[in-house]
Amino acid sequence: MTLTVESSRRNDPDLAACWSCKGPVARGSLFCATCKAVQPPSPLDHFARLGLPRRFDIKIPVLEQLYFGFQRQLHPDRFATAAPKAKQISQSQAVAFNEAYETLKDPLTRAAYLLALEGVKVEGEGAHTIADEELLMEQMERREALMEAADVPAVQALAQAAKTDADAALSALASSFASGDKDAAKRGYLRLKYLVKLGEEARARRARLSMAR
Amino acid sequence: MMLLQIHEPGETPLPHENEKGLAVGIDLGTTNSVVAFARDQKAEVVRDARGIALVPSVVAYVDGAEPLVGELARRELLDRPEIVVSSIKRLMGRGTDELAKLGGQLPYELGPPAEGGMARLNVGGRLRTPVEISADILRAVKERAELALGRNVDRAVVTVPAYFDDAARTATRDAARLAGLEVLRLVAEPTAAALAYGLDSQAEGLYAVYDLGGGTFDFSLLRLERGVFQVLATGGDAALGGDDFDHAVAAKFLAERGGATDRAHLKQALATARLAKECLTTQDPWDGMLDLGDVESAHRLSRADLEALIAPLVDRTIGIARATLEDAGVEPGQLGGVVLVGGSTRVPLVRARVAEFFGKPPLTGIDPDEVVAVGAALQAEALTAGSDTLLLDVLPLSLGLETMGGIVEKVVERNTPIPVSRAQEFTTYQDGQSAMAIHVVQGEREMVDQCRSLARFVLDGIPPMVAGAARIRVAFSVDADGLLTVTAKESSTGVESRVEVKPSYGLTEEEMAAMLRASIDNAQDDMERRLLTEARVEARRAINAVQSALAADSDLLNEAEAARIAETIEAVERAMSGVDRAAIQGAAEELEHRTKPFAEKRMDRGIRKALSGRAVSDLGV
Question: What is the CATH number of the domain that holds B226?
């Protein structure tokens, strides 16, 4: 099943050839209008894939309704008795929507993704070069305090403080994005990331302490 | 939603479609198995003449006879324990070395491993792998359904513990195939239970499923919303269940007797322990005899005794439930309900602890032994007849790769929705390095030796480069069944070297084929029939596609062209009514070939229309 027709068409920006009936399909369509065959995922960013505006401030219930709506049509369960190629395409569609949903539902990954779309690198090599000494010092102190906390209530208090600060950091991050300040957004992202991680460590420590009782 | 349809309404259905068997739901349990069938979103559990739904997951291999499964096999347990296998599910997907470690505690005798390294048991002189033994159970369950429904059953949704790793899932799917069942989907047991409850009660909100079976514990957190069953987090222990309660009680009895015990004694003591445990659900205390052939001994067990023995095990389940909720950031009080699944949730202490932890009495409206099969049957119907409900499940255990120093680099985190694809890039660490060993593991621990090893393979043919220049992309792809495929390729030079691995504990496709041949006479036919069905489905798709195109654009063809296409379609139809798979594929390819000029004309028209500024098709449907 090759797409020879498509390649001979000098890359029309709006049209592709349906893999099944070989006729024209508007790019980005989920299904062929003529033969109803499911189409492979288009190279879209996660926001566009789910039909959301590209911005940090998104409503989670809206995100979820969109995601569920697409999965209702595209999940491999809908193609359990379909032809093998259609099954395979439905899986790649479901993968694409799962990835979009996973990335956007968590503010931290959403922020990193949005910054990456804007050309600001926050993950991987060369990303952690900003020297925010204040942030580093603060984190080291808090981590130390966590390790020294000897009982559940003490850990609980630190976890609660981390949670409160994380909520504040999230609001700050949202305003940075809203005002288009990429540098502030990047700093806000890193701060939120450390706080979330601290919260996780506090939870793990609390679990260990309550287990040891 | 009619997207599932392979043919248009009113069109003649697939020839031979009437031959297609029914699709059922099977709960392949550690202790008992149950099969159910659904029609119009109403599921019914298949019962025997006496109204019993549970088929004990016990197989007896009597010399020179077909294996006995279920109650008949269980009866052999007291007289001839050496020919009987039970709780085989605990060994699914386990390697020989793992079993050797458990050796002393297992009431089985290990035989020499199969060629692929899969463990084999020596059961009364017969060598059987866990996959084959499970297949014997599935075959019996399938026959029970066929007898009750009066139709051939050839497809099934089979449930697995949510916490089953890739190897155990693969082994389960292989067992079903060996039993002549096409697996429509492997569904996690708690998810199936939630489906059964949710569809029954139209529940919405957050729900937890506490599933304590014979050999496995699963805990899942789900969100139910307008027909969507979204698994948010799952946790569990694939080696914790009612069997462990029995072991604790049996050990007490054997200690009370004193003296030496052997494997046969252990099997019998376990059977008595189970009886005592079950009796204690409704009476207190239990008094009974343990008859081990040589000496009979009397034993008494009170509910308090039992609870003291099993409390640490029950506490472990509550600990797992707590950790799973914390993972998802959910407090016990936020839950709309807790569904109890599995025979071991009948134990009063379990119910009490669950109620205490969640602060509300658990839901037990559907028989905890049958609820999983009911959900599986509903899903089998949804997959074959179409449905508006949607199951969104997650990967239960993280997948990763071994890196330097035996450290695991996680590629896909647990609780990621499936299907999922993730890739990671690696590079060479030596000049001119031409091969790279890739070790795929599953688990949460940081060190490789504390995780489950799924597959090892070597990517070779890497062109010579300086260290660090190669770009090796290892891609993990997990399908909706939770089954993994790993692909690796070197891409920096444009020279692609590619390896594809289906991690599975032991069974290669060839071994599967060999086992199929050995197990049932018509197995070959079975496989051939499946391939034939697939070829017909594909040919039908090709015809439908062309007919849709004709309906839209037939004016692009002159009479002769239209006639030629019609002829070719007829040729495909003719081939499809036969049983020659190659002929069907050939005819379908010919159809694709003959309609190429037509397709080009349609593309041209599409482009002209697009250029004239008119929408060709509505975006996104």
Answer: 3.30.420.40
B89 flagged as catalytic: yes
Q: Clarify whether residues B120 and B58 are in a common domain.
A: yes
Q: What span, in angstroms and rounded, lies between the C-alpha atoms of A93 and A71?
A: 9
A81 vs B383: CA distance, rounded Å? 7
Q: A160-194 in b/e burial notation, b at 16+ Cβ within 10 A?
A: ebbeebbeebbebbbebbeeeeeeebbbbbbbbbb
User: Domain holding B583: CATH number?
Assistant: 1.20.1270.10
**C-alpha span between B332 and B322 (Å, rounded):** 8
For the segment(s) A40-105, the CATH number from 3.40.1190.10, 1.10.287.110, 2.120.10.30, 3.40.50.300 is 1.10.287.110
User: What residues of chain B lie within 8 A of the CB of A77, using their CB?
Assistant: 185, 379, 382-383, 390-391, 480
Whether B369 and B34 have beta carbons less than 8 Å apart is answered as: yes
Instruction: Label residue B32 exposed, middle or buried (CB < 10 Å: 0-12, 13-18, 19+).
Output: buried
What are the backbone dihedrals phi and psi of residue B464, each rounded to the nearest 5 degrees, phi first? -65, 130
Structural contact between residues A80 and B185, judged by C-beta atoms closer than 8 angstroms: yes
ipTM of the complex: 0.85
Number of domains in chain B: 3
Together in a domain, B27 and B154: yes
Q: Are the beta carbons of B621 and A31 separated by less than 8 Å?
A: yes
Report the alpha-carbon distance of residue A173 to residue A187 in Å, rounded: 8
Q: What is the pTM of this model?
A: 0.83
How far is Cα A196 from Cα B434, in angstroms, rounded to an integer? 41
Q: Specify if B569 maps to a domain.
A: yes
Q: How sure is the predictor about B495, in pLDDT bands with cuts at 50, 70 and 90?
A: low
User: Quick one: pLDDT at residue B254?
Assistant: 84
For helices B189-201 and B371-385, what crossing angle results, to 10°?
80
In whole angstroms, give the CA distance from residue A22 to residue B597. Answer: 10
Range of the domain at B568: 521-611
CATH number of the domain encompassing residue B413:
2.60.34.10
Q: How confident is the model at residue B6 (pLDDT cuts 50, 70, 90)?
A: very low
pLDDT band at A59 (very low <50, low <70, confident <90, very high): very high
Considering the domain architecture, whether residues B215 and B335 belong to the same structural domain is answered as: yes
In chain B, which residues have their Cβ closer than 8 Å to the Cβ of A207? 322-323, 326
In chain B, what is the straight-line distance between the N-terminal and C-terminal CA atoms, in Å? 12
Closest CA to B35 of B523, B369, B489, B535: B369
Subunit contact A28:B619, Cβ cutoff 8 A: yes
Q: Bridge partners of B122?
A: B127
Closest listed residue to residue B75, CA positions, set B59, B64, B98: B59
Angle of helix A107-117 versus helix A152-178 axis, rounded to 10:
30
What local confidence, expressed as pLDDT, does residue B32 receive? 93
The residue of A95, A97, A196, A213 whose CB has the most chain B CBs within 10 angstroms, and thus the best one to mutate to test that interface, is A95
Domain boundary among B392, B415, B438: B392
- CATH class belonging to A133-212: mainly alpha
